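Incident log, structure service

09:12 report received: a user says their structure output differs between two submissions of the same chain.
09:20 pulled the input from the user's history:
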Amino acid sequence: MELIRSQMPRVLMVEDTSSLARTYMEYLKDEPIDLVHVETGAAGFRELDSQLPAALLLDLMLPDINGLEILKRIHQRGLPVQVVVITAHGSINTAVEAMRLGAYDYISKPFSPRELTARINALIRRTSP
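09:34 re-ran on a clean worker, output below:
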C-alpha cells in the first residue's frame, strides 16, 4: 500500500543552488518523504512557521542568511525539527558549532546518493513515533 503524500514525513530542504537541489531531489525521489525545496533562509523560515517538517536539510551558505543563524533561531525557538547541515564550506569548527546549535548531523559536499538517503532515513526514524 502506497502512502499518500500527506501521511509521509515532510522534509524541508533549504538549498540556494538550483542544480544541487535538483540533484538532491533526484537522490531522494524514491524515499517515502514529502520533500519541499526553498532557496533562501527567509523562505525556509516561512515554511517552518507554516508547517514544521520532520527534518530539515540546511545549506550553510545562503544568499540572505547564514545557515548557522537559522540553526540558532531554531534552537532559540525550541522547534522540534531534526537538522542535517549540508555545506561545501565546512570545517571542524563549523561542524562543532552546528552540532552545538542543535544540528543532528553534518554532511560535506559532495556526497553520494547513498549517504544522503541514509542520513534522511536516520532522521525520519528519530522523529517517527
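09:41 both user submissions now match this output. Likely a transient worker issue. Closing.
09:42 reviewer note: Strands lie at 10-14, 34-38, 55-59, 82-87, 105-108. The chain has a mean pLDDT of 89.
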